[in-house]
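Dear support,

I submitted the protein below through the web form. The confirmation email said the job was done, but the results page showed an empty box. After a refresh the structure appeared. I'm attaching both so you can tell me whether what I see now is the final result or a partial one.
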Amino acid sequence: MVAQPILEKYQIPAIVFITTDMIGTGKLIWAVELIERLVSWKQTRFTLGETEHILPPPDTPERTWAVSSIMASLRSASPQESQAFVEQVRSQTTLDFSPAWKRELYEFMNWDEVRQIQQRGVVIGAHTVSHPILSKLQPEQLERELKESKEHIEKEVGTNIDTIAYPFGSQYDYSDEVVNKARDLGFRLGFTLTERRNSEVLDPMRIHRICIGNDLTLASFRALISGIRGN
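What the results page shows now:
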């Protein structure tokens, strides 16, 4: 809702991808929730799968950096290992949303707000039901995440939804099976997050994007764009 007037002012086209389970619920995407919990988790040693990890002290810059490594390991673990670890961290931590800007940062729109930005020119796309790693799902789970998110959004906004962004979006987070199932269910455009430019789009279900985080400086952004253009 903050970006929409700016996009409108400068006539910049935009797509907002909706994770349907999160809209109007106050819930967080599991990865965001886990990062928030890990930063203050009192543990300094744990095992994930067959790998032992040693963590710097809580609430330090070093812990924050280490959390990124943990998340990468978690995404390569089995669903059972990942779920067990998430539940372990949940049972030993609490979420702290003071200062208030944290809740505002992570809070999702409600459906009225989704419809409002759509009416002002923003395209609405799907981002699954619960934001899982699609490549790790069983076929029936994959179909549910894709189909139910599409149908739910269409019911709420009253238009056909044929665009999807694969959660996390790296080459390990989606697969040929994911792409083919999305195409079969009526999606025409699929977006990855593989940090590559689209010199030519050979498959409209694999459109590349780059991630612009809130910790990226203007100088780093320029260097990133320059590097991608040189690829």
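Response: this is the final, complete result; the empty box was a page-load delay. The first strand starts at residue 15 and ends at 18.
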